[in-house]
Amino acid sequence: xxxVFFVFSCQKWFDYEAHALIPFISHGPLIFWLYPVFGxxxxxxxxxxxxxxxxxxxxxxxxxxxxxxxxxxGSCATYVATVTIIPFFPDAWAAPAGGFPAATLxxxxxxxxxxxxxxxxxxxxxxxxxxxxxxSPTQNGIVDRKRSRSRRLALKAQDHRRPVWRAMSCSATSAxxxxxICGWGPTPRMSFPDRLMxxxxxxxxxxxxxxxxxxxxxxSCDGRAPSxxxx
Length: 231
Known about the structure:
Layout: H1 2-11, H2 15-20, H3 22-26, H4 34-60, H5 65-83, H6 105-139, H7 141-181, H8 192-201, H9 210-221
């Protein structure tokens, strides 16, 4: 699209092109006023300048999405103005070939603007989507800050709950390990007679005191192995 605008803009600065545009501009419902206002050469200069401007905007749109949107809007306006000439163009059908559907070359020249108009509309859609995507982080900054604050509050509440769960875990560990450490309960995976024989054969001096057992349990809750005795 940029190349098309630059090529057509260059043609508007020559005298032969200015006179070749007379049947197109004079029958255009949106651009017929150019001749009364600017004259034949002035109308060609006006169109050439506009096309050059829209091409530059499209080129700069690679780095600035807002300029790309403006360039796409100008492109759409350009080809809307030329496509509306089609229904009013004189001698559109070639009489030597029997008329419709055989068309004259100037009329076929206008038909290519239908494709260019569709391309311009597509560019406008894409540029608007990209510009909106670039603006969304700034517009949603307040929402993002609220979400960050909610996330921080949730993490803070979770930190407050950790001591409670830790105490509950230590209590469960104490209830499970205290009988085993103090020799009050049987060793797991032993039959009932073996448990009795093991309890009778173990000297009382080998069993730790309650304070030592409780100290070992508290150390195990902190992730360290008991140091007062071995299991």
